[in-house]
Amino acid sequence: MAAETIDAYHAAQTGGDRAICARLRAEIDAGLPKAEAKIWHAHPVWFLNGNPIVGYSKLKTCVRLLFWSGQSFDTPGLKPEGKFKAAEARYTDAAEIDAGALQGWLADARRIQWDYKNIVKRKGELVRLS
Questions:
Q1: d(CA 10, CA 8)
Q2: What percent of the chain shows pLDDT beyond 70?
Q3: How many Cα atoms sit within 13 Å of 111 on the Cβ side?
Q4: Alpha carbon distance 118, 91 (integer Å)
Q5: d(C-alpha 85, C-alpha 71), whole Å
Q6: On the CB side of 96, how many CA atoms lie within 13 Å of its CA?
Q7: CA dihedral of residues 94, 90, 59, 16 (deg, nearest 10)
Q8: Mean per-residue pLDDT for 78-100?
Q9: Rounded to whole angstroms, how far apart are CA atoms 47 and 58?
Q10: Which residues pair with 39 in a beta bridge?
């Protein structure tokens, strides 16, 4: 059964992964105080104006932090993911999380967004919002 809240998602993780998720959540909440946070497609995701900005998910060997518009960011350190503009960082320990880099990515995320909210309506075409 999928978690219905971010707290439930965290509770379902093992110790090390739970620590990573808690650290990511604290940093994201601090960096995106106006974002709406919820479980979306079974993972914690933060939205600005209905547009997905950042989220994380447990993979087999790590926790993946994903920024939907991350390939357009100025702050280095993310790796491209998928065929659109997403980029990621992967963690196996909470100590690997660089708070400075993460806050830089969150600042970029507030400033640089592609319109994923309307990607289906536009038949897969992404349009830059800001």
A1: 5
A2: 86
A3: 10
A4: 30
A5: 5
A6: 15
A7: -10
A8: 94
A9: 19
A10: 44
pLDDT-based confidence at 62, cuts 50/70/90? Answer: very high
First vs last C-alpha separation in the chain: 37
Tokens representing 108? 């970029």
Look over the chain and give the mean of its residue pLDDT values, rounded to a whole number: 90
Q: Which residue has the tokens 């079974």?
A: 42
The CATH fold assigned to 6-111 is Aspartate Aminotransferase, domain 1 (3.90.1150)
- Express each pLDDT in 25-45 by its tens digit: 999 999 999 999 999 999 999
Contact in structure between 58 and 17 (CB atoms under 8 Å): yes
Residue type, 55: G
| Angle subtended at Cα 76 by Cα 89 and Cα 7, rounded to the nearest 5 degrees | 35
